Amino acid sequence: MADALTFSTRGIAVPQRRRVLHTLAEQGLLPIEPLSAAPSVELVKWRLPGASILWGQFDQVRQRAERADADDLFFGINLAGAALARQRGQEAPVRPGDAMALRLVEGPFSVVRPTPSRMIGIRVSRPALPGRRLVVGNSPALRLLTGYLTALGAGPAPADPVLADAVVGHLIELIGLSLGRAPHDPTPAAGGAVRVARLAALKADIARHLGDPELSVAAVAARHGISPRYVHKLFEGDGRTYSQVVLEARLERARRDLRSSTRTVSAIAGAAGFGDLSYFNRTFRRRYGMTPSEARGPSS
Asked: What are the φ/ψ torsions at residue 42 (nearest 5 degrees)?
């Protein structure tokens, strides 16, 4: 199972932020140093068996990690903003979309973030991964890993130990692909982690485009650089067809909006991608055992 930690400077008065960050760093809880009088940190961290994941937004801070006896690998993905990575006298700028892979047995490292930035960091205790690289350029494999991590961070930490182990396995495989252990552009024949990451990315894409009544499999496939046939195979391997996934997502979106919005049923159905109100009413009732008006509740 996973432990989750959340920290934010948002509720800390600016004059106190430096002191708080120094205290947390001295206690070994948060190895982040302020670079100014007004540092900013927003982060969520999961501790899984054999790995940890951190999603963070930083401004005017330095992340650092001490040398470790264990052959751990730190893999950091820079989502936005400029950063500068340093280890063993080497330094390199890290651009948005780039990543860095650093082995902790080779010495301490730091990442300076002088301006607003977003990143995802992974620390894994698997020496089988390829050796140190200060910067890894943007690639299809890295984008796939980034999409998988983004989808993970949108939900709760896995409570089931089996699921947590599966997540770690997926991360190790996808990091290996990003580091060039396998072809840079994964194909349908690649391992299970690629299929899981592809599915997560496809589902996130569908959720972003639900309002489009013509949310075709061809359009989704084109955005991800894969074939429509591969999209169908991925969803069928997951136990549902593409059409079933889209319909379920649209119904769930409409159900949430009915509970929280005062818009008309017709407007809510349209926003969820239903072009035919009678079809929406029929499928909604079949799925939830009530009409959309009944789902809205007596107080609406």
From this structure: -135, 120
Number of other residues whose CB lies within 10 A of the CB of residue 291: 13
Supply φ then ψ for residue 238, to 5 degrees.
Answer: -90, 0
Q: Which residues of 225-237 are buried (b: 16+ CB within 10 A; e: fewer)?
A: ebeeebbeebbee
Q: Taking CA 202 as the corner, what is the angle to CA 49 and CA 173, rounded to the nearest 5 degrees? A: 35
How long, in residues, is the chain? 300
Which CATH number fits the domain 3-198, given the four candidates 2.60.120.10, 3.40.190.10, 2.60.40.1400, 1.10.287.600?
2.60.120.10
Largest distance between two CA atoms of the chain: 67
pTM confidence score: 0.73
The torsion angles phi and psi of 21, rounded to 5 degrees, stand at -65, -40
Whole-angstrom distance, CA of residue 242 vs CA of residue 27: 49
Average pLDDT across each block of 10 residues of the chain; the chain has 300 residues. List them in order.
Answer: 85 94 89 93 93 94 80 89 86 87 84 94 76 66 90 88 89 86 44 81 88 86 86 89 92 92 91 92 94 76
Check if the beta carbon of residue 44 is closer than 8 Å to that of residue 121.
Answer: no
Q: Cα(291)–Cα(293) distance, rounded to whole angstroms?
A: 5
CB atoms within 10 A of CB 252: 15
Q: What are the backbone dihedrals phi and psi of residue 63, each rounded to the nearest 5 degrees, phi first?
A: -85, 145
Radius of gyration of the chain from its Cα atoms, rounded to whole angstroms: 22
Structural domain boundaries in the chain? 3-198
